Amino acid sequence: MRVLNAPAASGLFLVRDFLDPQVCAAVRAEAGAASGHPAPVYIEGAEGHVHEDVRKTSSLEVSAATAADVERRLRELREEIGGHFGLSLTGCEPPQFLRYGEGDFFVRHQDGDTDQIEFDHLRVRKVSVVIFLNGGASEPSEETFGGGELLIYRSNEETGAGPLVFPVPGEAGLLVAFRSDTVHEVTPVTGGERFTVVSWFN
Q1: pLDDT at 44
Q2: What pTM did the predictor assign?
């Protein structure tokens, strides 16, 4: 596991090999065989929590042991992540395991927003975490995917012009953390299947 130097303006905390290749392969195999359902998205005032014009991906039911192991690893990194962002972090939401198939996406959004008063769990989120279980490739294979970039949008404080965009290509085992009020999106997957784990510190 190695902390990477991300551009300061990106607001990212990156850890390579947070999950080693063997663990990634095992979790990906379990996730790939797991049953799933459309992942929710929370929109104040809207009926229901499935809005596939906003977010189209599947939430997967992995074993309790697998979920607990990933959560334990995240909690072990809590102080380092909190220190990076200058935050005191306490709890960690149970990790969610996601599969983005071809055409799946998530439009620009924030994971935590104080204006989302209807949803307590969104208001308390401080740091979002994405863990890639497989990598992106220009020509996807059984183990990789095409498209599906994580795009991070940051304000351009120097010029005041449009936002700076930081693309994060998929890499198996890579952990990406950012403040939960950061605007970000997942571009449509163009081939293969994109497997990730997401969680949030509060």
Answers
A1: 65
A2: 0.91
